[in-house]
Records
---
Amino acid sequence: MRARVGDQLVVHGRTVGQHDRVAEVVEVLGADGAPPFRVRFEDGHEAVMSPGPDAEIRHRHTAR
């Protein structure tokens, strides 16, 4: 899993009724875009995360 600043980390809900959580990657702490990532959730909470198999990265599209 690789990410860049500005990408979104989506952590999927693991039980029925639990919603996905979306956070913006604000810092990549691993080498070459690898975890861990410092992320900011929509409510302003920040965390350092090493995502598991229930997560995906949505890459930010860049204009060319």
---
Amino acid sequence: MPKTDSSRGTAPEVPRTRVLVVGGGYVGMYTALRLQQKLKPELRSGRTEIVVVTPDPYMTYQPFLPEAAAGSISPRHVVVPLRRVLGRCRVIVGEVKSVDHSKRTATFTTLATEEEGTGAVEITYDELVLAPGSVSRTLPVPGLADHGIGFKTVEEAIGLRNHVIEQLDIASSTRDPAIRDAALTFVFVGGGYAGVEALGELEDMARYAAGYYHNVTADDLKWILVEASDRILPEVGEEMGRYTVSELRRRNIDVRLRTRLESCEDRVAVLDDGSRFPTRTVVWTAGVKPHPVLAATDLPRNERGRLKCTAQLAVDGAPHAWGAGDAAAVPDITAGEEGKECAPNAQHAVRQARVLGDNIAASLRGEPLTDYAHEYAGSVASLGLHKGVAHVYGRRLKGYPAWFMHRVYHLSRVPTVNRKARVLSEWILSGLFKREIVSLGSLERPRAEFELAAGGNPPGSPPSHPPRDPKGST
């Protein structure tokens, strides 16, 4: 029991160490989870506090986004509620705006900030974990901001699914050949994991859905993949990359290598090879960049804007600051090559988080730290139902075996037994029953019907009070 002050009869205030975790993605959630496990006595006694500030109250398991878009998994099963998993942490739904590590302070806004009118909130900390992840890397392509669709969040994945099905409805009901052609043309920009897997899964879903339309066939659909380099899926190796191109082209998907999107103004995708495609769907998956909050800190960054970190996942030259994942440039000590960094992918992020949690706990207790060392095991990618490619431990797989390995691997990696069981049950049910091909696009504007009934704006017109988006902005 703590000693009491006999003169006042109260217990003296116990010094508390606050660990501030910025971000609730792979690194943020797994680091906080690891700290919960390693610092149980300190958390129980109140000597340590873990605060997680994140824009969303959940962690999104992004490898499952393509299957969520295709309807193989329910959206709620690709996210992990942070408050349930991080029961010993204080979770704040907000967005960090700046960090002053010299003063050990960070400022952030919450959903209530605008209502209160008090401005950003300041929080002090003793240890900082900066893991805000990354954002989509866009280029100044004319029309992209107006017509482009991202594929990084669960909201975007489900919105894209609804959008694709709605295009089939438009094509089925219009009498204008130009509108029909634009509705059935789908352009994906970016040949990495996100672009190829999203294209493969959605093409598979749309091909199946077309069978339920009396005047739309799978052959009417036009799918185009645009990639600036000379290969796609570089993570699975050159041979598997070539196989993926062949497999996609066998499905009548137009794969354009060494090609860039120049414009998508007026719903026309213009490529630098002179091709023009009237389209209502341009999906942008051409890479990511570090989160903008990194530029609003006084921490050292490299030329790409990522935190300069040591092999122990500490920010180089900034004591008590830590980083991992997409936001951090972590040296790959297993590569045997000077200056080599770990790839910013989920495979490294999850493993880095475990080491990061251990090192923070060790630092607080004055124990030695551990270097992060993990040899890249390989990659797996899904190209649709029962189709995939894999390059794991030097072995190359394609078709059904690769697809099966993709599912097994990610099922083993998705957090919590609860989510594993729910995902597995949905896969089993989807194998026994047919796909669901219903568009719920009206969810994006749930008040439309009531506004019309109340004499407001009719559906399809801009609402008088735009609904708040999932991030809390208007």
---
Amino acid sequence: MTGQPAGAAAAKTPRTARPEARLLVPALIFIALVVAAVASLGTPLITSVATSFHVSLGSAQWTLTIALLSGAVATPVLGRLGAGPYRRATILATLAIVVAGSALTVLPLPFAWLLAGRAAQGIGLGLTALMMGVARDHLPEERSATVIALISVVSIIGAGVGYPLAALLAEYGGVRTTYGLGLAVTAAALLTAWRSMPEAPEGRSAHVDVTGAVVLAAALLLVLYLAGEQHLWSQHPAVASGLAVAAVVLLCAWAVIELRSTTPLVDVRAVRHPAVAGANIAMFVGGIGMYLLLTLITRYAQTPHGAGYGFGLTTFVAGLVLIPFSVLGFVAGKLTPRIRSRISGPLLLAGSAVVVGGGFALFAAARSNLAELFVAMGVLGLGVGGFSAAMPGVILAVTPKSETSSAMSFNYVVRSVGYSLGSAIGGLILTTGTDPGHLFPDDGAYTTAAVVGIGAMAITALTSLVLARRRSPGTSA
């Protein structure tokens, strides 16, 4: 008699679970892609926003900066909430906020409301780590490793997917049309999550350290503000230095708060593990280099011929240069989990960093025609895709399942700060290389920036190699 109910349950379970399992993997990847692409919409629209809203380019730049800032601040909070029993509710509520923010960007409202909408859209970036947590909890181990790698990759190549389409829509339909696309895809992501996201496993608990969250938010605000406001360093260096010191003090205070808290926002003790610390250092320095080249190439392609170099491409055509980056990045993301069975995660990080450095070298040595830019961008995509796909395996190999979202959210914060600094360093180098009275920098400034990027990727590769040597023989990625 006991066998019949068990058999009936076994027969019943696949019918109820199979549709959810079938939807889960594409849903996770789709949501990660959408939030990354929508947050990056500010990049190709800065000039259009300045024209449409009659604001300066510096003010329009905040449509991108504020999304990155809100994402960096929200990520650790969402990561902690996602580690608890309310993960599904957290995902749905966050996507609802993103949809509401997308609506604000579409409605004919003043510029301040556009910034508020972009901040709400940026909060969605915190969902990437939660998607990884869902995959690790609800998929078989081998399958989850592959899916987590893809989620990590699409969270980066999302910018490459959204850039050309956003630029095309802005060129023919205006800024509101482009943001309308963001509203449509975020609404689709919310519906997808509502249909496919499972509840978190039982027995989890999560308490948000409000004090730690506020201190971290203040520190990140200063860091990203200083990275985005390059003129502050040249015009008011004393003020900029004071704010930099304040940011360091706040970060130190946050670390102390987390160490003393019984329910920390981020488990700082776990972050101190050699594998996790090494991976985050590699992510920080590598992020500086990766984003440096990504912004350099698109800016170089749009420089008019009158500057003595460049190709004078429109925003849309320049965005097409990102296609090799996205395609080869996705290919690398698919191949990396297979390679990881033969090569350790830290060695994959080192190899990917070398590939990214090769992209810098190509750009430094050969950029006289568009084909060479496409090749350099393709090499960058291959390296970034491999690096992004290998990173989660290195961290999660020493992280409990219940802490997946929290651990990866901290890595995302590190990545965001690295990207912001990479963008700022690139802009600073080009500004320094611009002669007085000239609008565009000298061609040699791009070479200098590429050399700096090669140095950053060399440090990243060396850090990863040290991590590979220190890695415990019993640890499996």
---
Amino acid sequence: MKKQEKQKKREDDQRWTLADRLGAETEAKLLAKKRALAEEEQRRRAAEEARRREEARRREEQKSFAELLEESALDWRKFK
């Protein structure tokens, strides 16, 4: 008999979800925190991407004539 009671109690415990155990207020706080962290991560990624683009633009501006000529796909032999 005790075994059946323990098994029934386990089944009842398994039916509870995390939201049921924590309560609505705590669940709402956790969801808000999750959203805030996701937004912060998105802002961080956008800032990092902007920094990379700016750095690439600066490097492009600072290239010497020799570097630009070396990167060029033009071949002077064709225009001879």
